[in-house]
Design a protein that fits this description.
- It is elongated and about 60 Å long.
- It has 212 residues and is mainly alpha-helical.
- Helices cover 71% and strands 0% of the residues.
- The protein has 2 domains: 54 residues, Arc Repressor Mutant, subunit A (Orthogonal Bundle), CATH 1.10.10; 148 residues, Tetracycline Repressor, domain 2, CATH 1.10.357.10.
- The protein contains 9 helices and no strands.
- 26% of the residues are buried.
């Protein structure tokens, strides 16, 4: 039987460690997850973990990167299904906030992630998010849907607002109630970007005080 290429073996080892760690972090949390337990569950050793990820913190980064990629793909699909670019922008923003109710995202990305890795705005994934939102806002302004503001500055503010909403939900005593409050407030804030003459109302949004 032919041996697998080294690159394939490395990818398989990494995938096993990430899957085992993700299950452990998602059930008992980062602090209580035993490296010996999840390396054994993957049929590997601590040495393999150190070789591929450096340490437990490096493995958490890899797990969060995987979850983040999945979240981005889900958000991309949400945006594509929308009838207009504006509605897609709204749907994507709300869908991101709603993800804070999912136990795995809540525990790994929104609780343990910031506690171990620091400020989420400094994570590599935020750079791609900022670029995409900046471009989207630029196009919305060009088509006359939203007011002309600096797209990067506006993207920074919106990303900060939705990220903080997600962190608020994850730590709230009643995440469901907090999520509804956050979504309502986010819709009201985003409506403020609309050009008065375009008036594409946000589905389920609050009455617009600008008469849009």
């Amino acid at each position: 039987m032919a041996h697998k290429p080294r690159s394939e073996m490395i990818a398989e080892t990494r995938a096993k460690l990430i899957a085992a760690a993700r299950a452990a972090f998602g059930t008992v949390g980062y602090a209580d997850a035993s490296m010996d337990d999840f390396t054994a569950a993957a049929g590997l050793t601590r040495g393999a973990l150190y070789h591929h990820f450096g340490d437990k913190k490096g493995l958490l980064q890899a797990v969060i990167a995987q979850i983040d990629a999945e979240m981005n793909e889900r958000l991309r699909i949400v945006m594509q299904k929308a009838p207009t670019r504006w509605q897609g922008f709204i749907d994507e923003s709300i869908a991101y906030i709603e993800m804070a109710l999912e136990p795995e995202i809540q525990r790994i990305v929104l609780r343990d992630g910031p506690a171990v890795l620091g400020d989420p705005t400094s994570w590599p994934s935020q750079n791609a998010c900022l670029r995409d939102m900046t471009e989207n806002l630029r196009l919305l302004a060009e088509e006359g849907t939203i007011v002309a503001t600096d797209p990067e500055a506006t993207a920074q503010l919106i990303i900060g607002a939705t990220l903080n909403a997600s962190l608020w939900i994850a730590k709230a005593p009643d995440p469901e109630v907090t999520s509804k409050k956050a979504i309502q407030a986010t819709k009201a804030l985003l409506e403020g970007l609309l050009v008065a003459s375009s008036s594409p109302r946000i589905e389920g949004g609050s009455p617009n005080i600008r008469g849009i």
